[in-house]
Specification:
Belongs to the major facilitator superfamily. Proton-dependent oligopeptide transporter (POT/PTR) (TC 2.A.17) family. The structure is a single chain. The protein is an all-alpha fold. The chain has two domains: about 190 residues, Growth Hormone, Chain: A (Up-down Bundle); about 240 residues, MFS general substrate transporter like domains (Growth Hormone, Chain: A), CATH 1.20.1250.20. It has 17 helices and six strands. The longest helix is centred in the middle third of the chain and has 29 residues. The relative contact order is 0.13.
Amino acid sequence: MASSLTKESPTPGTPGSPRSFFGHPRGLATLFMTEMWERFSYYGMRALLPLYLIAPSGLHLSVPAATAIGSVYVSLVYLLALPGGWFGDRVWGPRRTVAVAGGVIMLGHLTLALPTAGTFYAGLGLVAIGSGLLKANISTMVGHLYDGPDDPRRDGGFTVFYMGINLGAFAAPLVIGTIGEKVNWHLGFALAALGMALGLAQFLLGSRHLDARSSVVPTPLSVAEKSATLRRAAIWAGVAAVFYAFVGFSGHYTLNWVMVPLILLGLIVPVVVLARIKRDQDLNESEQRSMSAYIWFFVAAAVFWMIYDQGATTLSIFADGNAENTVLGWEFPVSWYQSVNPVLIMALAPVFAWFWLALNRRGKEPSTIVKFSSGLVLVGVSFFLFLAPLSIAGDGHKAAAMWIVAIYFIQTVGELTLSPVGLSVTTKMAPAKYASQMMGVWFLAVTAGDATTGLLSVAGVNLDRMGVVALEAVLAVAAGAAVWAYRGRVKSLMGNVN
C-alpha cells in the first residue's frame, strides 16, 4: 500500500498528493483494505459452509438441508442490508455502524470456530447481521470521499474499491478453504475471524482519513421515534422469545422452525417493499411507469440469482463427491472452485467495459433490456451445461474439473452482462423520493432468489438432480426470452432510460 502513495502535489486529497491512494483520497485506502478483509472473511467462510454442513467430520447434514442453510444465510445477509442502511442513516451514522458491524462479524466467525452445533448457528446469525450492517454503509462512505456525483474521480474510486472485494474473494478460498478442508474446519472459521480483525483494525486506525460526513447521522431519530422503535423491537423480541420457548419446551423444535420464517421473510419483504413504492401516491405518472418496468427487471434478477448463487451450494456440494478435483494429477480442495468467479471478474470486467464502449461509439451497444435477457439466458445455459457432469456422475464416473470451471465461466459472463446493468438501471429508474433506498431494493432481488432456493430445499427437493437442474435452466432461458419478447412494452414504460 505504501508504494502507491505519491508526493508530487501539495494539495491533500487530489491526484498525486501526499494523501492520495492510486490518485484518489487517502480514505479510499482505508475502505479498500477494510472491504478486502471483510470479503476475505465472508467468502472464506462461505466456501467452507456447505462442505462443513455435509461432511461426516462436520454437521453431517443432508444435501437439501445444507443447501437450504447456505441459501437462507445469503438471503438474510442481503435482506439485512435494508435495516443496516437504516441504522447508518438514523442511529449511528455510517462510520460507527461499520465499526460495530466489523466487531459483530468477527464475533460471529469466532463463534463458528467453536466445535458445537448450537454455537455454529448463532455464529451464522451474527455474521449475517454484521454483514448487513456493513454492506449498506461502507459504499456510502466511499461516495463521501468525492465532491458529489460529478467528481471525475468518483467512478474510478468505486472501481478500485470493488477490486478490493474481488481480491478478498479470490484469496479467501485458497487460504481459509485449504486450512478448513485439509487441517480443521473450525481453524478455518477462526482464520475468517482473523481476517475480519485485520479489516477492523485497518478501519479504526485509518478512519481519520475518512470524510467528516461519514460520522454524521443524516436523519437522526427524534426522542419519540426512538421510544416507539425500541418499544416495537421489544414487543417483537418478546413474542419471538415466548414462541420459541414454547416450541422448544414442548419438544417440537426443529431447525425448520427458524428456517421457514426466514425464508418467508425473504419472499414477502421484497414484494411488500416493491408494492409500497409502486402504490405511493406521491409518485408522478412517469415514475409509476418506471416502477412498472423496474418490476420486470427485479423478477428477472431474482431468477438469475436463484441459479447463480447455487454455485456456492449445489455446484460445490456436487463437486465434493462427484468431480475429479485434480490438475495434472494434483488434487486441490473443493473450496478452491469459489476463487474461479472473482479471478474471472477481475480479468473480464475491463474487457466488458471496453467492449460496451466500443459498441457504443459505433451506435451498436445493446440496450439494457437485451443485456438483461442475455444474462438470464447465459445463467440458464450454465445449468444446461451442468447436465453433462451430472450425466457423467450418474454413470458412476467422476466428472472432470473443467466441467465445473466452465459452468462458473458462463455464469460469470452472465453476471457481467446483468449485474452492473442492474445497478445502473436501478439508479436511473428510481423515483426521486426513493433515490437513496432503491439500491437496497436491488439487493432484495438476491434475497428473493436465494429464499426461493431455500424454500425448495426445505421442501426436500434435491437441487442437483438432472430433472430439477434442467427445469431451472429452462426457467432462466424462458425468462430471458420473455424479457426480450416484451422489450417494446418494457421500453415504453422506461421512458427515456436506455
